[in-house]
Amino acid sequence: MRPVAIVGIDCRFPGAPDSAAYWDMLMRSGDGVDKVPGQRWDAREFHSPAGAEGHSNTTEGGFISDPDAFDNEFFTVSPREAAAMDPQQRLLLQCAWRAFEDAGIAPQRLAGTSTGVFVGIMGNEWAQLHMTDYARVTAQVGSGNGYCMTANRVSYHLDLKGPSLAVDTACSSSLVAVHLACNALLAGECDTAIAAGVNVALTPALGIFYTQAGLSAPDGRCKPFSADADGIGRGEGVGAVVLRRLEDAVADGQPVYAVIRGTAVNQDGRSNGITAPNRWSQQDVLAAAYRRAGVEPSDVTFMEAHGTGTVLGDMIEAKALGHLHAGRSGRPLAVGSVKGNIGHTEGAAGIAGLIKVALSLHHRVVPASRFAARENPALKLARQGLRLLKAPLRLRSGPAIGGLSSFGMGGTNAHAVLESAPPHAVRPERSAGGATGLGTGVFTLTAPSLDALRRNLLVQADAVQRRRVPVGPLSWSSNRAKTGHRYRFALPAQDTDELVAGLRSAAADDDLLARLAAHPAGKPQVALLFTGQGSQYPGMTARLYQESPLYRRYLNEADAALAPHTGGSVRELLLTGDPAVHRTGWTQPALFAVGYALAASLSELGVPPALLLGHSVGEYAAAVLAEVLPLEQAARLIAARGALMQRLPEGGGMLAVRAPVTDLVELVDAEPLVGIGAVNGPKATVLSGDSTALGRIEDKLGRWGVRTRRLEVSHAFHSPLMEPILDRFAALADEIGGGVPKVPVYSTVRGRLLEAEPMDAKYWTEHIAAPVLFGDATARLLEAGPTHLVEIGPRPVLTGMARALRSAAGPGVHSVAPVPGEEAGGREFAEAVAELFRSGLDPRWDAVYPEEERVPQRLAPYAFSAAHRFWARETPARAQGAAGLGVVPDHHPEAAEPHVVLTAVLPSVAEDPAGDPVARAVIEAVAEVGGYAPDEVSRQSLLYEDLGFDSVMIMELKDRLQERLDGLEAMSVQDLLPRLSSVGDLADYLQDRVGTAVA
To answer: Pfam families from the xrefs (predicted)?
Structure first.
């Protein structure tokens, strides 16, 4: 069989809330078995040391903590539905999410894909407690139970379209699920699959059965292959692995825990009892898996046995293993079983063993087997070529192979052969591309609420602090896996110490958290503003060039395009801090190079410009981005422009005037050598022309009390003094031409959007002497509704000028400066990307990092809220203001309605619907159907996105509204559907259809 890679893992077993804790417990031979929690059942009531009829001989077992905790808000599940769901479904939802994240996959990105879900499960005790109480069966109780729903819930909530099925083969269920998942991958039914197992013990029924069948250990502990073995101890838990074809995982750069080389499944058939194991069938399933994996028994280094600790089961399994491994000379097969640590987890036993084997191959050490110190002499393990692992086994260098057996009580057997991941799959090689990287990474995290974000910031801070991994790979990995929720956090950091401090500070400071996180209303619409002449300074963007390979790449491109026409290197001019940058012949090409390099870098980063505007020479770089001119031709044109202007006689000047242009027309008309150079706003005008003539105007304005300021320029740009160069420039422009912009350009020559008009030779010639109509162009641009103004230049100039014009766009326009000052480098550029991400942009993150930093790292899994608790039933006494939840056995005389205690699920609003009987009735009906308290529902609550309503709940809501509202016209669900955006929308709709009386 072709190899299948395990690329993601999550689990929760007794004494181990996650995979890291699970591995730690295995390595220290920890014990997850303890007393039966009072939340499950009263173990004393059903306990008899002698195992009397109807009783169990033990009061202990392996139980996970807080199985009632479920983050229903995260999955948009209403409290009522959550309370009706089998906790196995809830546990699987959270486990699957974390497993996908562990694989470096943001789960939302799987929506609509053929990803398969395969779940092993053999217990359905929740249904026994609820579905047999016919008077209380609801639509939610029905969908909250059933084996199929354990898999279907995952597919539904993650919108997965591949195979989705639950498997019950008793104790082998979850390994059979892995077998089916591998086959589906190899058959091409899906490209990604999640295989899982889950088991939660809610009643003493199986413990009583084990006792009556003579299979139960009095102390509740499995002791695999031990002289002390005396039966099964029950355990529970949930585990999931993400599987991909090995070649696909390697191609996508996903690190691999281990590789499944072969799996096999068979059945005992008719043996000496349906619950008794069959040695020959076990031998056959091992041999079949070895054949499918292409390995010999002697190639297998260690075996995770089924190992229940029953006398008969251990004996038969040892003989089956011995049949294949007895000939091993001097190198016996190392055998262990995780059931000694956590008990027999029944339907989850196979996945518990698989995760142990995968982690052992990943860490290259096999944990000792608990209770192995005194092996059962009757098993004659040495003669069978076997040895119990009494101490951890260090795996030799090179490929290592381990096996895993899982045998079902009804006779369905499964075996898997796993191998250590090949070196190139453990640390995948990254394909080399163009120069990338900003010099600083951006750590990202998203969550559905600010509280969830704060909780996960602290989890990530703790995890990062414990690791010795550079911040770049950690940040890149966070960009891939920790995304997709409404609240977006982004923090540039240059090392892990800074990152940890930043995460903790944000979690502790509401104001800082608000600055570093945002709730985007939609995708940003980005307008790029290209700064013109006057923004230059010696050494501009030199630090960014040194720190950012991405920017360096594009500045080098611009330099190479300019060099044939400038007679020197713009790049060297900038890097050496040459003051010649203020000479027009160098200024204009240098600003063009910086503008092009910044815009091209943003484009590479996945920042799509919706709108473009350039101030004077800024339009040249904007024209390249709008595909009006190719880089080489734009470089030729701007170099000629600067050179021609440089050769003009000096003596010109420019004067900034704090007055409307209409007030200056007469003064300008009186001076033939002066013109309007720029109109930057309603009271921001620049005059340009002969310095002496400007002085006369300046004197008059001073006497009138008008503020003026001379600009430091070498020539009178955009004035009549430019006329001597127009013919020569026009001849060159005719050779180059220019097309119609492919991205909307707001022209500062026309003062408006160019409507299918070419930026051709005529345009560029007019551009030299015409006034810069920045104010008009920017006002029109703002009317188009950009969310962000990104300044493309060596310092922020235009965004400040645009601030006075923002009333046309409203308060939602944000200014972003990739180069906010003269010392700006990679960190500041990264902060600009972070700000855009917070607002809803999904950057092309690979471009933020150099190739060597794009190495996958497994981050701490998502930390779900444990604030909301859902359990089965309560006594009436507990229901009265109860602080905790518990389960009452189905036959208990005081069994009450299912009940749940929750903290506020949704923020309430200050409004009081008491004065509006229709709104009050709607809120109360919505709360009843969803299981919310009335103060948890407001007019702003969204029925689908916030309250988790579905079609079944809508039907019930319609009926309740008809009962509550007297005089309500008859209506159908179809009538309601268009009105169900929010509770307020529904109330407003019903207001017109109901009389004044309210039931």
So the answer is: Acyl_transf_1 (PF00698), ketoacyl-synt (PF00109), Ketoacyl-synt_C (PF02801), PP-binding (PF00550)
CB 777 within 8 A of CB 748: yes
**CA-angle at 892, arms to 891 and 897, nearest 5°:** 100
**Position of tokens 């509280």?**
451
Q: Which residue segment(s) compose the domain that 786 sits in?
A: 526-650+714-825
Q: Within a 10 A sphere around the Cβ of 391, how many other Cβ atoms? A: 11
306, 485, 715, 767: which one is catalytic?
A: 306
258-267 and 412-420 strand pairing: antiparallel
Taking alpha carbons only, the member of 601, 548, 553 closest to residue 437 is 548
Catalytic residue, chosen from 47, 179, 344, 715, is 344
Could you confirm whether 306 is annotated as catalytic? Answer: yes
CB atoms within 10 A of CB 814: 17
Active site residue 344: yes
Position 429 confidence tier, pLDDT thresholds 50, 70, 90? low
Note whether residue 34 is domain-resident: no
* Count of domains for the chain: 5
Q: Who wins on pLDDT, 446 or 273?
A: 446
Over range 55-75, report the average pLDDT: 93
Res 901 pLDDT > 70: no
Q: Are residues 14 and 139 in the same domain?
A: yes
- pTM to 2 decimal places: 0.88
Mean pLDDT of the region 19-46: 93
> Is 95 known to be catalytic?
no
Specify whether 952 is located in the same domain as 898: no
Q: Is residue 318 assigned to a domain?
A: yes
Determine, yes or no, domain membership for 341: yes
* CATH number for position 973: 1.10.1200.10
Residue 663 counted as domain residue: no
3-state helix, strand, coil in the chain (%, to 5): 40, 15, 40
Q: Which of 171, 182, 190, 222 is the catalytic position?
A: 171
DSSP 411: S
